[in-house]
Specification:
Blueprint: H1 2-19, H2 30-39, H3 46-76, H4 78-81, H5 84-132, H6 137-145
Helix pairs in contact: 3-5
Length: about 150
């Protein structure tokens, strides 16, 4: 009886450990981590969004430099790596292309959000000036009709 219980306990433990997830769910992909940081920013705060995209581009630039150094190492000492060296060179070249594309996209997004922030500041500045000098809603509708 005692051996049966211990056997069942061991089998249950083996079954549960085989079904357990090894990686944390939130760290499955790097994109999910970046998306989490981005979702914490208010979408109307274009300065913060631009800053986020610029910081992401800087991080990607650092990774790009590391990949370029690694590719140079693979090309300079390809005899160290044997047949696998060509695969490593190809993979590193693909990573470099990915990082360059991501940097361009992030800088483009940052420029768009900077422009939107400037437009929003202009709009807020003109709204404040209208309220300061005593514009009323009627004056604004009359100026729109003319």
């Amino acid at each position: 009886m005692k051996t049966q219980i211990s056997l069942i306990a061991v089998l249950t433990l083996c079954f549960l450990s085989a079904c357990a997830q090894m990686n944390p769910v939130s760290a499955v992909q790097n994109n999910e981590i970046g998306t989490t940081r981005l979702s914490a920013i208010d979408h109307n705060n274009h300065d913060a969004l631009a800053q986020h995209h610029e910081n992401t581009a800087k991080e990607m630039q650092t990774k790009l430099q590391a990949q370029k150094k690694l590719l140079q190492e693979y090309e300079d000492h390809n005899y160290y790596y044997g047949r696998k060296g060509l695969d490593l060179q190809s993979h590193t070249s693909a990573n470099i292309r990915y990082f360059e594309k991501s940097i361009k996209e992030n800088l483009k997004e940052a420029a768009i959000h900077r422009k939107m922030a400037r437009d929003q500041e202009k709009r807020n500045y003109t709204d404040v000036n209208k309220h300061d000098i005593g514009y009323t809603k009627e004056d604004e509708t009359k100026s729109q009709l003319n």
